[in-house]
Write a structure and sequence with these properties.
With 119 residues, this protein is mainly alpha-helical. It has one domain: lambda repressor-like DNA-binding domains (434 Repressor (Amino-terminal Domain)). It contains six helices and two strands. α2 packs across α3. The radius of gyration is 18 Å and the shape is globular.
């Protein structure tokens, strides 16, 4: 499930129209529609605002509903006794950030999430 599907689900929950969200973002409705249809990528400067509109974290915009982890077997015998165990969990999101203000907001939110995970 991609970010477009997530946007559709979140919009459905808020009962907002595509036009209403586009207006909140100062965009043409077609631009927002293209995001939901995954025809075009979301400009990074709009990501924090979308999270704010839908009252979710930035990660929630990109995560699938059924959180699945990707596992890779570690073949190195030295790691088998390590606290990591025999599987290495790798999960990630790649966001291309071109706007410095958006980068600051995203960075701050990521730091908060990492701190919460360490608790």
């Amino acid at each position: 499930m991609g970010v477009g599907t997530n946007l559709k689900k979140l919009r459905s929950k808020t009962k907002l129209s595509q036009q209403e969200i586009a207006d909140m973002l100062g965009l043409d409705r077609n631009t927002y529609t293209n995001w939901e249809n995954e025809a075009t990528d979301i400009k990074s400067s709009y990501i924090p605002k979308l999270a704010e509109i839908f009252e979710v974290s930035i990660v929630d915009l990109f995560e699938s509903g059924n959180k699945q982890s990707n596992y890779n077997n570690l073949e190195n015998a030295e790691l088998k006794g390590n606290s990591i165990g025999q599987k290495d969990i790798q999960q990630g999101i790649i966001i291309n950030i071109t706007d410095s203000e958006a980068a600051k907001v995203i960075s701050s939110q990521l730091e908060e999430m990492i701190k919460a995970l360490k608790k």
